[in-house]
Specification:
Blueprint (H helix, E strand, L loop, with lengths): L1 H38 L1 H11 L1 E7 L5 E2 L10 E8 L7 H12 L3 H10 L3 E4 L18 E8 L8 H4 L12 H5 L1 H4 L4 E7 L12 E6 L7 E2 L4 H14 L3 E7 L4 E8 L33 H10 L8 E4 L2 E4 L2 E4 L9 E4 H7 L2 H11 L1 H10 L24 H8 L9 H12 L3 E2 L18 E2 L3 H17 L13 E12 L5 E11 L6 E7 L5 H19 L9
Parallel strand pairs: 2-8
Antiparallel strand pairs: 1-6, 3-4, 3-5, 6-7, 9-10, 9-19, 11-14, 12-13, 15-16, 17-18, 18-19
Helix pairs in contact: 1-2, 3-4, 8-16, 9-11, 9-12, 9-15, 10-15, 11-13
Length: 557
């Protein structure tokens, strides 16, 4: 009995151990089951589905580029595209033949893409009836969709914005290149095809378009006004074969428009690589001799240094001897302008008078004022932006004479001239020009600095107005606003077939004279006379802006 009781107790203890062990095991398994179902269920389900999903990138992450009112400057628009998932294609040969017939591709290339198995897209460059076959499900694995095309027909400011390399390439030129890392933070779009174990589309999921990234994060908002930009480009298309225009809001230093001609389409870059018109170059950022526009610097420096006044009397006999060189006035054949004061000399762009003023100043002071007003330095810091050239102190008298006339070694960009014009129009307060605003990189409002006294600026405004009312710039006069400006005709050193000098045509000015709102710079490359060619472009642009856009909307307060 004792032995039996002892055996029963041992069995009982073993049973308890086994029971407890089983309870612990089942409890652990139950906890794991709860954990998998309640805590990890959604994640595991997503992973399982993802393993059965085929991903095709429709749009690589890239932010949009907008004007100050959030109007797209790239003209982005929807474009038909075929999304092809080779693993879902039942008859690869037939599908490749159909694609080759409709799109003109090589059958072998398309068949090879299908056999490789990686999803790919075919861009539909034109819509035609045959496309409908892919929208009816006749070719499994081929889907007709709409995808955003980055550069559309309504694109503006192409030279400023630049372009990207292919669909997933980085920025190659312009702002696309300068702000490439910022723009890459934008949203992308994937197309996902969910399939079951048999490779068939899962009915409840099918095709899904999935956005990646945060909306608006990689966008670039510019100071440009699309309305002003479009007016500028339309006028240039009519009147400027090659050249540049820059429009600036005087009080803020914001660039309202920047355009270059000849133009190009950003999604067809290969077509322009062998062009001889250099259409891919942004001429607003390129170096040119300023010609008589440099007389603005000479006048400002002489007035600021107290070396002259507007009513000082001069005499132009048609030429001026400087050492062994003779510098002629454009009225040389008529015997010169005769007696005239500084205001008249400025308005009529009399060369001998400005050579005389430059001699009073000396090259060091003259070039210092040019630097002070923004010449010889980058304005926006873009990769394509040239720095201009002011050069060292002029050793020879003839060099100084050439500098005073904006010839010789002097080179400027239209953007630099816009910076100079802004400072003068703004009462002598220089505000660095800006192209981005708001939350865009480097979009902080710049602080201004005084570079000319109010007395000097007032005198300059009088001379600039006189140029438009009865000087070389009468073709720039506006019908409803007062304006002031200066013409420039810069020699290139080249001659045409008739032996005539080939010149760049310039006009730089602002309006209205009281409380100036806009500064406009016009360059017509190899256009000839600034008074006959560039001044009318200035007038046409401002007349249209005034007529088509409420002034209150242009103040950007």
């Amino acid at each position: 009995m004792v032995a039996g009781d002892k055996g029963m107790r041992v069995c009982s203890q073993r049973f308890k151990v086994i029971f407890i062990g089983l309870v612990l095991i089942f409890s652990f398994l139950s906890l794991q089951l709860v954990r998998l179902q309640l805590w990890l269920g959604a994640d595991l389900e997503a992973r399982a589905i993802k393993q059965q999903g085929h991903i095709l990138t429709l749009d690589f992450p890239r932010g949009g580029i907008y004007d100050r009112n959030f109007v797209s400057l790239t003209g982005s628009q929807n474009q038909p595209v075929l999304a092809i998932f080779p693993t879902l294609v039942e008859d690869k040969g037939a599908t490749a033949r159909e694609l080759a017939a409709l799109f003109g591709g090589e059958f072998a290339d398309l068949h090879s893409c299908l056999k490789r198995g990686q999803p790919f897209t075919l861009t539909v460059k034109r819509v035609f009836p045959g496309l409908a076959v892919f929208d009816t499900g006749s070719f499994p694995g081929v889907f007709l969709l709409q995808r955003a095309k980055r550069y559309g027909e309504m694109a503006l400011a192409q030279h400023l914005i630049g372009y990207i390399q292919g669909e997933n390439g980085g920025g190659v030129a312009g702002l696309e290149r300068h702000y490439d890392s910022h723009l890459r933070k934008g949203q992308g779009l994937d197309l996902m095809a969910w399939v079951d174990a048999n490779g068939s589309i899962i009915p409840d999921l099918g095709l899904q378009q999935v956005l990646r990234g945060t909306e608006g994060k990689g966008d670039l908002v510019l100071t440009l006004d699309a309305r002003v930009q479009r007016i500028v480009e339309e006028v240039m298309d009519e009147k400027v074969r090659a050249g540049a225009v820059v429009v600036v809001q005087v009080r803020t230093g914001e660039i309202m428009a920047l355009a270059s001609r000849p133009n190009y389409c950003q999604d067809r870059i290969k077509e322009y690589l062998n062009n001889t018109d250099a259409c891919l170059i942004n001429r607003a950022l390129r170096n040119y001799p300023p010609g008589s526009l440099f007389k603005i610097i000479v006048t400002a420096a002489a007035l600021e240094e107290g070396l002259t006044q507007l009513d000082e009397d001069f005499y132009c006999g048609g030429f001026l001897e400087v050492g062994a060189e003779i510098f002629r006035c454009h009225r040389y054949q008529d015997g010169g302008h005769g007696p005239l004061d500084l205001t008249e000399a400025f308005a009529k762009s009399c060369n001998p008078i400005f050579i005389s003023l430059a001699q009073r100043l000396g090259s060091v002071k003259l070039l210092n004022y040019a630097h002070r007003l923004g010449l010889g330095a980058a304005v926006l810091g873009l990769a394509e932006e040239m720095l201009g050239h002011l050069g060292p102190e002029a050793v020879y008298a003839g060099d100084l004479a050439n500098i005073s006339l904006g010839q010789g070694s002097i080179l400027v960009t239209p953007l630099q001239i816009a910076q100079m014009t802004q400072a003068i129009a703004n009462g002598g307060v220089y505000i660095p020009l800006q192209i981005t605003r708001g939350d865009s990189p480097r979009g902080d409002a710049p602080t201004g600095r005084t570079v000319l006294s109010g007395t000097t600026v007032a005198a300059l405004a009088t001379a600039l107005q006189r140029t438009v009312t009865d000087g070389t710039g009468t073709a720039a006069a506006l019908s409803s606003w007062t304006s002031g400006g200066k013409t420039g005709t810069a020699e290139t050193g080249l001659k045409d077939a008739n032996g005539q000098a080939i010149c760049h045509a310039w006009f730089a000015g602002f309006a209205p004279l009281q409380a100036p709102l806009m500064a406009v710079v016009v360059l017509v490359e190899e256009g000839g006379s600034g008074s006959q060619v560039a001044a009318p472009v200035f007038r046409e642009i401002l007349q249209r802006i005034i007529a088509e856009i409420p002034v209150a909307e242009l103040k950007y307060n």
